[in-house]
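Hi F.,

I've been meaning to write this up properly since the lab meeting, where we talked about keeping a consistent format for the predictions we share between groups. The idea is simple: the sequence comes first, exactly as it goes in, then the structure tokens exactly as they come out, then a line or two of notes. No screenshots and no reformatting. I'm using this chain as the first example so we have something concrete to point to.
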Amino acid sequence: IPGGAAFFFFFATDETPDEEPEKPKGRQEPSGQADSIHQQRQMKRASSKQTVKRPAHAEPSKGGFSTRIIDVVSRLSATHARTGRANAKTLTQLRVISELFCEVTVVDDVRDVRQAHLAEFVATLDQLPPTYRRSIAERDKPISEIVAEASKAGVPVGLSVATVNRNLVHIGKVLKSAQAEGIRIDTSINPSLLRRFSK
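Output, unedited:
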């Protein structure tokens, strides 16, 4: 029956145990047809297992690009370095800021970024001491711990207006770069809404 085999394949992807030996089937179907169906089953099951095991962030976009934020940053940095559009210091800032954004928001995939994540990021910058992670003791310390310790110690916190705005500009560049590559992002995101202004 046309389409019958396709229905059978979808059914075979279920969690029902069907890895038993095929001896009973061999009595009902010609061996060649049974072997063919069994092979198709195995191929379908293997493909399904690979899809389940593969992390969501590792799935490329339709254009074939990785959608991980850090990978978008790597491609953008490589382009800027090749064209001379940015110097080494700027590229380092871009990477560090992007890594900080991922740490604060726990977002790894650029497609998952929302305006609320940017607001959370800026709110965290307001709670960080200006000298955070400059000491060896803080270099590998989680941001959440640095914020908690600063709050407990009562030390001055909050990054400068220029630093906050620079962070927002770099995150905006990453989002635009992903969009330029054909990766679908939330178009309602607007980093400029969170910009700070000096008195």
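Notes:
The radius of gyration is 25 Å.
The first helix runs from residue 4 to 12.

If this format works for you, I'll send the rest the same way.

G.
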